[in-house]
Design goal:
268 residues; alpha/beta; 41% helix; binds S-adenosylmethionine
């Protein structure tokens, strides 16, 4: 099986996504969805942004490489009685099942950044966007001091070195790389805009319980714990993550942690 697919089918990302719904809804309210707009959500997971876009009247397709998340998205849409959204399995590096210029808006929030071959991903996102349409990406930023970049940094220090030639997903959080990838796909540099934005992880339990949720359900963290266990260092990894989550928690009761990301807007 495709390693990328295996990573995201591991565990159950819906359990992490549950803590990200408020920010998903806020972001979608901010991107200018209009009734009947054709929206592709790429790397949609179980619909944290796709579902609110459909609730605002867009005609939404969610595409994700993980079959369990596609199923979860379709189940959520059905439970909510939405008939203007569907989720299907697909790979951001090759969207050949989708026609050129099919979407007014392509959204990818912490989604396409995780696909390999970033130049192919940029090319596919541009290809399926209508001339005059937009692409909005949310990408975590390497070495940022906030939650997600720090989880990934700590996890990497317990994991084997990446194979030769591996391009880190975090490179999508570097403006020069984003410009290079979209200009190679034919977009003029002046059509690419950047802003810093914040996502919140809101969770009813205490920070240590959220760490436990990441350990149990989030593929990349599960892999880091497996690598740590191989060196008998699971307790060290858990302690570092608990210290991080506790230090960054802003809530008096429960957990509410902000994480900064790079919001990229591309006009086609
Ligand atoms: C961090 S999750 C974010 C999911 C969703 N966008 C959200 O905000 O909840 C990353 C998602 O990207 C998906 N993904 C990773 N590689 C992909 C690829 N090559 N093509 C499509 N989806 C991919 C994963 O399956 C996962 O659902």
């Amino acid at each position: 099986m495709n390693a990328n697919q295996a990573l995201w089918e591991k565990g159950d990302f819906t359990r992490i996504a549950a803590s990200m719904r408020d920010s998903g809804e806020a972001l979608v309210r901010d991107v200018g969805i209009t009734e009947g707009m054709k929206v592709l959500d790429l790397g949609s997971g179980d619909g944290t942004t796709a579902i609110p876009a459909a609730q605002l009247g867009a005609d939404v397709l969610g595409v994700d490489i993980a079959s369990n998340l596609v199923e979860a998205g379709n189940r959520r849409a059905q439970e909510l009685g939405l008939d203007n959204i569907r989720f299907q399995q697909g790979d951001a590096t090759d969207l050949s099942e989708l026609d050129d210029g099919s979407f007014d808006l392509v959204v990818s929030i912490f989604g396409a950044m995780f696909a390999p071959n970033p130049f192919d991903v940029a090319k596919e996102m541009v290809r399926v966007t209508k001339p005059g349409g937009r692409i909005v990406m949310g990408n975590w930023i390497p070495n940022d001091p906030t939650l997600v970049a720090q989880i990934l940094k700590i996890s990497a220090s317990y994991s084997p070195a990446a194979p030769e030639g591996f391009v880190s997903p975090m490179t999508w959080g570097v403006e020069d790389n984003v410009v290079e990838r979209f200009t190679a796909a034919g977009v003029p540099a002046e059509n690419i805009g950047f802003q810093r934005d914040t996502y919140w992880f809101n969770f009813a339990g205490e920070p240590a319980e959220l760490v436990e949720s990441f350990r149990t359900y989030y593929g990349p963290t599960m892999n880091a714990f497996e690598a740590a266990a191989a060196n008998d260092r699971e307790d060290d990894l858990r302690a570092e993550l608990e210290a991080l989550f506790t230090e960054q928690n802003t809530a008096d009761a429960g957990t509410s942690i902000p994480a900064t990301f790079l919001r990229v807007t591309v006009s086609r």
